[in-house]
Protein 1
Amino acid sequence: VQLQAFGGGLVQAGGSLRLSCAASGRTFSSSGMGWFRQAPGKEREFVAAISRSGRSTYYVDSMKGRFTISRDDAKNTVYLQMNSLKPEDTAVYYCAAMDSGSYYSTQSYDLWGQGTLVTVSS
C-alpha cells in the first residue's frame, strides 16, 4: 500500500505545475485525498483535499483560485494543478489518504506519499 507523488520541479514565478499522486494497493475510491506542503523550517500545512466522491473540494483561502485538486478513480490518481505560482509556494508537497476526520488536519490521514519538491524562482 503506497502513494507516490511526482510532478514537482523548478518553475518561474507566475508559472504552472501539475502534481500527480498515484495510489496502489488500496481501494482508492473509498479514500478522501489531500495535499499538504512543508517548507524548510516550517510545519507541514494543508493545501487542498477532495472527498471520496470528488464532489467536494477544500482549499486554504490563499490558494483558492490558483490551485485545483481533482481525482481520477479509474487511474487511482489525484492531481494538484498549481497556477500563478509564487516563490512562497516553494516546498515539498505531499499527498495523503484518509478514511475519516477533518480534511484539514494531518492527523486524519493515515497514508502518506514520499513528497515531491516544488521550487518557484523569483
Note: DSSP finds no helices and eleven strands in the chain.
Protein 2
Amino acid sequence: VQLQASGGGLVQAGGSLRLSCAASRSGFSFNAVAWYRQAPGKQRELVAAITSGGSMNYADSVKGRFTISRDNAKNTVYLQMNSLKPEDTAVYYCNAQGRYYLDDDTPVVGNFWGQGTEVTVSS
C-alpha cells in the first residue's frame, strides 16, 4: 500500500492550496495521520497531525494558516494551506499509521508514507 499525495503546485504568496492524501488500496483504514515537509537542504519536519479521534496539532510556523482534516468515508486526509509564504516551499509528504486486509483477510498494520507533492510559493 502506498499513500498518494496530490494537490501541490506553484502559488503566489498569500495564496492557498489543498493537499490530499489517499491510500492506493481500497479498504485501507487510517489511524493517526500526519503531514511532513522537507525544504531543499533542510531536514524533514512535522507540519500537522491528526489522531483517529480527531485531535490535531500543528507546527508553530503554520498555526492559524494550515488545517488538517480527514474524511473517513473517503479514506482521505487533507491539508488546507492558506496565507502561504515563500518559506512554506517544500515537498510535502503524508504519513499514516493504518491497516488493510489481504485477500485472505490477514490484517496488515503499519506505518505508511506517500511519495510527496511539491509546493512552491513565489514571493
Note: The first strand starts at residue 3 and ends at 6.
Protein 3
Amino acid sequence: QVQLVESGGGLVQAGGSLRLSCAASGTIFSINDMAWYRQGPGNQRELVAAITSGGNTNYADSMKGRFYISRDNAKNTVYLQMNSLKPEDTAVYLCKADIQPYGVRSTVFRYWGQGTQVTVSS
C-alpha cells in the first residue's frame, strides 16, 4: 500500500507565505515525477508545479517567481513553498506522485493525496 499525506495548509493573509509538504509512504521502490495541483471553488484542477526525480522543475505561469517546488528523495517528500500569496490562490492543494511499488515490475502508478486547504484572506 502506498499513500500520500499532505500537510501545511491553513489560513494566511494576502502577501504571506506557507510551506506545504507531501510525504509518500508504503512499499515504495522508486518515485518518478512529483507535483502539486490545486482546485479552487468552482474551478477545474490545475497544475501548480512539478519536479522530476532528478530535480528538474516546471511551473504554471501564474506561479512563477512566487511558488517553489522541491523534494527530498531520502524522505520521499515533496514541498511547495508559496510566497506573496493572493486571495485567488485559495484552493485545495493536492499532491501527485508517480510511484513504482515493490513487487510490481516496471509498472508505475499515479497516486494522489487527500488535499490540504489553503485560504488566503484579503
Note: The longest strand covers residues 28-39.
Protein 4
Amino acid sequence: QVQLVESGGGLVQAGGSLRLSCAASGRTFSVYAMAWFRQAPGKEREFVAVLGRRGLTTYYADSVKGRFTISRDTAKNTVYLQMNSLKPEDTAVYYCGTGASAGYSDPALYNYWGQGTQVTVSS
C-alpha cells in the first residue's frame, strides 16, 4: 500500500515562491512516475508536473513551464515541487499522485493520492 503526505503549502504574495513536499511510503519511485496536480474551487483537478520513474524525464503544464520544477530525493522517498514567480491563478489545493500505469496528465489514471496542501497566492 502506498501512502502520500504533502506539506509546504501556505499563503504567499504574487511573485513569491513555495516548495511543496510529498513524502511517499513504500518503494514507489522505481515503479511509478510521481506527479503533482492541483484543484481550484469549482474546477476539475488539473495536471501540473510529472517526474518519470527513473527520475530522468519531466513534463509540465504550459501554465507552469519555466516557473515550477519537480524533483525528488530517493533517499528520503520524497518528491518536491519548487514554485517560483507565483501568480494568483496558481491558487489551489495541490495533490501528489502516483500509481499510473500509462500516461501522466489524466488524474483518472492515478491510483494513489495524498490529502492535498493549500496554496494561496495573493495579488
Note: The chain has a mean pLDDT of 95.
